[in-house]
Amino acid sequence: MLNSNTTNADDLRIYQIIDANLDRAREGLRVLEDWARFGLGQEKYVERIKNFRQILGKNHLEVYKKSRNHIEDKCKGLTHQEQINRKTSEQIISSNSGRVQEALRVIEEFSRLNNNELAKIASRIRYEIYTIEIDLLNLSKFKKSEEILKENHLYVITDQKDNLLEIIEEILIAGVRIIQYRFKTGTDKDHLQEAIQIKNLCKRYNSLFIVNDRLDIALASNADGIHLGQDDLDLKTARKLVGHSKIIGVSANNEIDISNAIKEGCDYIGIGPVFETATKKNKKPIGIERIKTLTKDLNIPWFAIGGIKTNSISYLKSNGIKKVALVSQLMNSEDPKEDAIMILKELSNEN
């Protein structure tokens, strides 16, 4: 219920401010709602944001709307250069979240004078938008990672090399979009420093950076994901720690492990070893036919791994295996860039 503690002229100016900011808040909410709906397919967030719009609409009183032409807005049409500089969905999410938060703060401050109920509503929604902004940004980041996993067929796993950063940049230049950082010896301090450098390289080339085994290194380097073996931290615990903005991959080579990984929400699976490999000397190859049986009903990305060479890719493709993970073939190459280009071309060719 409105009250009139101020003069009539003051009331009209305040109503005009509230009117303008209710419009701004609802416009910004509609941008967030449409991204949650069409960009992310997140029904839960669509419903929450739509509810906020409806609440603000219900409280957009006629007295506020009638105040619009009380004072001419001489600043109408003003823009800022930053509005033109928004080039990514993340920038749009953040700018519109900020627009909603700022508008609600104005509503909260000015409606206290004559509509305390609206002030409380604005405050409550504003605090919820802080959390929703982070959630939408995390979901957007995760969706981009998912798309890279689906669209790319070559997954490169590193080995410990003195010139590792140079090798990685060469294969990134070639077009590789997924890098897993794998290490077994050395200090955590050195691994973290190297992980951060690789992460920066991957970011520059719009590629995924995944850390093998070590959740702490993955989190500290802000990796895009973590890859877990069967003897590593369980997937449910890892998900609790990394949240839903990062991808989690799992190594598996039997029906039970694959089924468990899918039930627990892994984002991709590495299956192998296909052939004998020096990387996993103690593991017996499971072979092409076994891999075909294990993957016939899989509906998430999976990569064959283990002893795969350039000259075996055509054979794998002829058996329906289109995604592969490589270690030594590129890590030990005399020309990793050219080899990566050749492998990518081979994987992209239709049989």
Concise description?
With 351 residues, the protein is of the alpha/beta class. It has helices at 8-39, 43-58, 62-66, 81-84, 89-111, 116-151, 164-174, 188-204, 215-220, 235-242, 255-263, 287-295, 313-318, 328-331, 336-348, and strands spanning 154-157, 178-181, 208-212, 225-228, 247-252, 268-271, 302-305, 324-326.
Compile the SSE list and pairings.
Blueprint: H1 8-39, H2 43-58, H3 62-66, H4 81-84, H5 89-111, H6 116-151, E1 154-157, H7 164-174, E2 178-181, H8 188-204, E3 208-212, H9 215-220, E4 225-228, H10 235-242, E5 247-252, H11 255-263, E6 268-271, H12 287-295, E7 302-305, H13 313-318, E8 324-326, H14 328-331, H15 336-348
Parallel strand pairs: 1-2, 1-8, 2-3, 3-4, 4-5, 5-6, 6-7, 7-8
Helix pairs in contact: 1-2, 1-5, 2-6, 5-6, 7-8, 7-15
What is the straight-line distance between the termini?
A: 72 Å
What's the main sheet like? 8 strands, parallel, barrel
- Count of discrete alpha- or pi-helical segments spanning 4 or more residues: 15
Beta fraction:
5-15%
Spatial strand sequence of the major β-sheet: 1-2-3-4-5-6-7-8
CATH homologous superfamily (4th level) name of the largest domain: Aldolase class I
Low-confidence stretches: 3-7
The CATH C-level class name of the largest domain: Alpha Beta
Looking at the overall shape, the CATH architecture of the largest domain is Alpha-Beta Barrel
Shape: elongated
* Mean pLDDT rating: 91
Q: Which sequence of SSEs, written as H and E, runs from N to C?
A: HHHHHHEHEHEHEHEHEHEHEHH
Helix content: 55-70%
Structural category is alpha/beta
- Our Rg estimate from Cα atoms comes to 27 Å
The CATH topology of the largest domain is given as TIM Barrel
- How many structural domains does the protein architecture include? 2
Question: What is the tally of beta strands?
Answer: 8
